[in-house]
C-alpha cells in the first residue's frame, strides 16, 4: 500500500490581471482535502482557480472551487482503494466507495469530467487523456495545462516543485 503522504507535486493555477499565474502549494496541503480546499481558496483569483496534484506517480487530482461549492476530478477512481486522499475526494463529490471485491480493470476518471469544459477541454478529450496508459499523471496534467492555456508555466512550476 502506498504511503498516503506521498505527494509528487502540488501546484495552483489562477487568473490575475488576465494572465495565468502558476505556483507551488505546500505538499502537506495536498495530503488532506480540507487543507487543499483552504489553500486554493486563499489564491487572489479573478475567476478560475485550480489545484493540480500528483500522487506517487499513480494518479492526479484536480480541485476547482466554484462559488460555495467545489469541483473535483480524480484521474483514476481505483486509487481510492489505496490512497486516503483519493477516497476523501471521491466521497466529497458523492462517488460511491469502491469495495475490495469490485472488479475495476480499466483506469477510469471519476468526479467532474466537465471541470475544464469552459476552458476549452471537453469531457471526451479529458477522459482520453486520463485513460492513456502510456502517460504518467504529471504528463497527463501537462497535456491538460497545455490544452487550457498554461503549459509552459505549469512545466516550470512542476520542475521547481520537484527540485
For the record, give the distance between the C-alpha atoms at the N and C termini, rounded to a whole number. Answer: 25 Å
Which residue ranges are poorly predicted, with pLDDT under 50 across at least 5 consecutive positions?
none
* Net shape: globular
* Rg measurement, Å: 15 Å
Main sheet, how many strands, which sense, barrel? 6 strands, antiparallel
Structural class: alpha+beta
How are strands sequenced across the largest beta sheet? 2-1-3-4-5-6
What do you see in this structure?
With 163 residues, this protein is of the alpha+beta class. It has one domain (7-162). Helix content is 31%, strand content 24%. It has helices at 33-41, 84-92, 123-130, 137-148, 151-162; strands at residues 7-16, 19-24, 49-55, 59-66, 69-74, 110-111. A 6-stranded antiparallel beta sheet has the order 2-1-3-4-5-6, with helices on both faces. α4 (137-148) runs antiparallel to α5.
Outline of the structure:
The protein is built from 5 helices and 6 strands, in the order E-E-H-E-E-E-H-E-H-H-H.
Q: Which keywords apply here?
A:
163 residues, alpha+beta, 6-stranded antiparallel sheet, 5 helices, 6 strands, globular
Amino acid at each position: 500500500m502506498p504511503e498516503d503522504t506521498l505527494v509528487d507535486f502540488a501546484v495552483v493555477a489562477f487568473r490575475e490581471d488576465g494572465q495565468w499565474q502558476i505556483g507551488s502549494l505546500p505538499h502537506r496541503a495536498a495530503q488532506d482535502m480540507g487543507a487543499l480546499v483552504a489553500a486554493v481558496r486563499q489564491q487572489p483569483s479573478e475567476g478560475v482557480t485550480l489545484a493540480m496534484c500528483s500522487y506517487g506517480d499513480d494518479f492526479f487530482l484536480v480541485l476547482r472551487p466554484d462559488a460555495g461549492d467545489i469541483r473535483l476530478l480524480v484521474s483514476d477512481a481505483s486509487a481510492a482503494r489505496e490512497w486516503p486522499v483519493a477516497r476523501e475526494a471521491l466521497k466529497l463529490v458523492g462517488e460511491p466507495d469502491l469495495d475490495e471485491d469490485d472488479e475495476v480493470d480499466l483506469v477510469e476518471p471519476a468526479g467532474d469530467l466537465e471541470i475544464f469544459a469552459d476552458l476549452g477541454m471537453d469531457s471526451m478529450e479529458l477522459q482520453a487523456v486520463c485513460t492513456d496508459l502510456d502517460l504518467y499523471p504529471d504528463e497527463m496534467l501537462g497535456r491538460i495545462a497545455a490544452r487550457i492555456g498554461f503549459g509552459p508555466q505549469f512545466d516550470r512550476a512542476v520542475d521547481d516543485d520537484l527540485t
